[in-house]
Amino acid sequence: MPPRKPQQPNDPDSKTSTDEFLQLIPDAVRYAYRTYDGLFNKDDMEDLAQSVALLLLEGDSQALRSFEGRAAKKTWLQRVTDHHALRLFSKRKKTVSLEGASPDDFPYQQRQEKEALAKELEDLLDELADELPPRIRELLALLLQDLDTEEIAKRMRIKPDSVSKLKRRLFDKAKEFFKSKGWE
């Protein structure tokens, strides 16, 4: 198969037209909106679509002329849109008016909840570790290092079967501990 000839939007022989790119913008903006989950709202989506359209058309379509046809039009435009979205929204102020806002308007709330949950889980793991016998506590530390059974056996100087038995005891104790704390 012969290599694809680079396409230039303003080339009369090219099937690529400015209109084709402009028609792809709404899909690219929707995808960027989903990708950067919650970084911007519906009004921002409209601003982004207009900004990308202007970017493609300004300077006698200079940005469009950079399209060489090495990627699909949709892929190329998506990269341009993603890049522009990040630049556009990183420049804006990080403040939000709380008037008329609902909890769903704050994407960072979910991250804060995850961080709080992770902290609570970390505290519970510390508490669990304090209640474990020394050998099982050592096993837990090695498991948290993401070591496999063979490596754990070498470090603890025991057989792999013994590691498996200790794991079972650890998991049983952890299950009982978390159940007593209301984590089922």
List the helices and strands and how they pair.
Blueprint: H1 18-35, H2 42-65, H3 73-91, H4 107-131, H5 134-144, H6 149-156, H7 160-180
Helix pairs in contact: 1-2, 1-3, 2-3, 5-7, 6-7
Brief rundown of the structure:
The protein is an all-alpha fold and 184 residues long. It is built from seven helices and no strands.
Description:
- The protein is mainly alpha-helical and 184 residues long.
- It folds into two domains: 18-91, no CATH class; 108-180, Arc Repressor Mutant, subunit A (Orthogonal Bundle), CATH 1.10.10.
- It has helices spanning 18-35, 42-65, 73-91, 107-131, 134-144, 149-156, 160-180.
- Helix 1 crosses helix 3 (73-91).
- Mean pLDDT is 76; it is low at 3-15.
Q: How many distinct beta strands?
A: 0
Shape: elongated
Secondary-structure-based class equals mainly alpha
Mean pLDDT: 76
Let me know the largest β-sheet: none
Count of the domains: 2
Rg over C-alpha atoms, rounded to the nearest angstrom: 27 Å
Distance between the termini: 59 Å
Helix count from the secondary structure assignment = 7
Spans where pLDDT lies below 50 across 5 or more residues: 3-15
What letter string, H or E per element, gives the SSE order?
HHHHHHH
Note the beta-strand portion.
under 5%
* Share in helix: 55-70%
Keywords:
184 residues, mainly alpha, 2 domains, elongated, disordered N terminus
